[in-house]
Amino acid sequence: MQVEIPFNRTPDFPPGEARPVSPLIRRIVAPNPGAFTFQGTGTYIVGRGTVAVIDPGPMIESHLQAILDALRGECVSHILVTHTHIDHSPLARPLQRATGAPVWGCGPHGRGRHEQGAKVEEGGDTEFAPDRQLAHGDAVDGAGWTLEAVHTPGHTSNHLCFALREENALFTGDHVMGWSTSIISPPDGDMRAYMASLDLLQRRGDAVYWPTHGGPVRDPQPFVAAFVAHRKEREAAILACLGGGIARIREMVPRIYGSTIPPGLYPAAARSVFAHVIDLAERGAVAADGPIAIDTAYRLAR
Fold first, then answer.
1. Which residues lie closer than 8 Å to 132 by C-beta, 6 or more apart?
2. What pLDDT, in 10s, does the model give residues 200-252?
3. What fold characterizes domain 232-300?
């Protein structure tokens, strides 16, 4: 039986409108809807008067103007970035030039992977470099709000969530989205790290998640449990393919996904299947007939 994840796919706000979603949080949606962004990137403003901006978004001038319009008369003290994909971080520098606020994040795209000689995927904001780096547990604060960094690698190696202590809320970026599961694309995407990060969230007591894409998650524990079950189900499907003699990822994807996604998304799905295969190989469950690569033939380990 396929795991049912209780996604929140309610229509988002019209692009460019700053809407309050809680006493301390406002949300502005960028005009970049798509297969991977749902109805657009949701930028968050935290606080009143002196504020933080989370995930400024893609390099779209109208979105920058919408943020600045919403902030008229207020001071931006922090620009926070969950991770360095091009729909999240590029607008940080233009927003900094307009406000003077420092940019905070975990580090550059592929942090820790480049040093290992890995070429991380296209679609990353390779020009991003934070003014100040945040590690797990670091906190920043303003007038009436405190945001704590929660390191959640997996979707990217430099992914951070931000916990708003005053509302027991968590800004989850793309680690846990409201409308869909996340793509885990090696080498920067790492399935083992992703599962460990989901386990970390299950051990927290956050009351609500505010993803960058999709609506809020107001019952986080069963939602994350469904994400974990979904990944285990996907792992079992891969092992079943291998047990049935289907050796290559490109042949597994149609069998596993079928009509649940359009064929145009099969290449992206193959990246997540590859992430699972890497994890299975590292755990000794799967063997490769050659180097670990997306086009390699795989088999069950004896």
1. 102, 103, 104
2. 999 999 999 999 999 999 999 999 999 999 999 999 999 999 999 999 999 99
3. Arc Repressor Mutant, subunit A (1.10.10)
CA-wise closest residue to 54 among 181, 163, 168, 208: 163
The region, left, alpha or beta by phi > 0 then psi within -120 to 50, assigned to residue 8 is beta
Summarised one tens digit per residue, pLDDT across range 262-278 is 888 899 999 999 999 99
Identity of the amino acid at 187: P
Distance CA 12, CA 119 (A): 35
pTM over 0.90: yes
Question: Domain ranges in the chain?
Answer: 19-227, 232-300
What is the rounded CA–CA span in Å between residue 169 and residue 299?
43
The domain 19-227 is placed in CATH, from the list 3.40.50.2300, 3.60.15.10, 3.40.640.10, 3.40.50.300, at 3.60.15.10
Contact 49, 74 (CB under 8 A): yes
**Calpha distance 234→241 (Å, rounded):** 11
Of the candidates 36, 46, 93, which has an alpha carbon nearest to the alpha carbon of residue 74?
46
142, 51 in Cβ contact below 8 A?
Answer: yes
- The alpha helices in the chain, defined as continuous H runs, are 61-70, 92-99, 191-202, 220-243, 249-257, 266-282
Q: Which residue has the tokens 């919403």?
A: 70
Neighbours of 12 (CB within 10 A): 20
Using only C-alpha atoms, the chain has a radius of gyration, in whole angstroms, of 19
Say how far apart CA 157 and CA 166 lie, in whole Å. Answer: 27
